[in-house]
Design goal:
Layout lengths: L18 E8 L2 E8 L10 H9 L8 E5 L5 H9 L4 E6 L2 H14 L7 E5 L13 E6 L7 H12 L2 E12 L4 H11 L4 E8 L2 E7 L3
Parallel strand pairs: 3-4, 3-6, 4-5, 6-7
Antiparallel strand pairs: 1-2, 7-9, 8-9
The chain binds S-adenosylmethionine (SAM).
S-adenosylmethionine binds next to helix 2 and strand 4.
């Protein structure tokens, strides 16, 4: 049987724990991130994440947003900085990643710690009892786990979006971005999907939920 503890998406990755500090300018603001060996892209902000952050749409008005599969938190923390009146949830299955996210919220957004909430667990499971719906869900999906889980998630996500809420995500072209685009159009003919940009081999998508 495969040892899942060696993956970045394990609950507790089986690696020597070493804390790293990285810095990155995103949307013209400099962020400092603490990361831990074994967390996704722990030594530098992933290129797909960077392309996504630079192009994602962020509502100006106060709203409720979710960074799904947050890793050490770059997407959700940028959302919090750019939309300071909003409530942001960040969720990851990897407990080391969630520890980093909590540290990174304190480091980068010390005045907003009350409305930025990091939770550990399996996708929507940690917020299931909160009966919360989102104006925006943002994701750099873990496609190394296989496409199937992500395609199933596309179904579940609709139930967590407010009317006209959007789901934005990034996929590498080589990892199946064109396939996902066609799958979405065929499976949800009444929902809209736009390709916001194609940069450096990554496609950034935005879908709107119409209920
Ligand atoms: C491609 S990484 C992106 C991480 C981060 N958003 C970034 O851009 O740096 C995908 C993340 O999804 C998390 N993940 C995988 N399966 C998950 C699950 N079932 N529930 C919650 N998070 C999950 C992984 O641990 C990983 O941190």
């Amino acid at each position: 049987m495969q040892n899942n503890r060696n993956h970045y998406y394990s609950k507790f990755p089986d690696v020597d724990v070493k804390i790293h500090t990285i810095s990155e300018s995103l949307r013209r603001h400099l962020y400092i991130f603490k990361t831990i060996t074994g967390v996704f892209s722990f030594n530098k902000v992933d290129l797909g994440t960077k392309v996504f952050i630079e192009h994602m749409y962020i509502p100006k008005e106060p709203c409720v947003l979710l960074d799904l599969g947050c890793g050490y938190g770059p997407i959700g923390i940028v959302l919090g900085y750019e939309s300071p009146q909003s409530t942001i949830y960040l969720v990851d299955i990897n407990k080391h990643a969630v520890w980093c996210t909590k540290e990174n919220i304190r480091l980068n957004l010390p005045e907003q710690t009350k409305n930025i909430i990091a939770l550990s667990g399996n996708y929507f499971e940690p917020i299931k009892n909160k009966s919360v719906k989102f104006d925006g869900i943002y994701m750099n999906p873990p496609l190394r786990q296989g496409r199937k889980t992500f395609l199933k998630l596309l179904n579940d996500i609709q139930g967590y979006l407010k009317e006209r809420g959007s789901f934005q995500f990034v996929i590498r072209k080589k990892m199946g971005a064109p396939y996902v685009y066609n799958y979405f159009k065929n499976t949800f003919p009444h929902e809209n999907i736009d390709i916001i940009c194609k940069r450096s081999g990554y496609w950034v998508f935005r879908c709107f939920h119409q209920s």
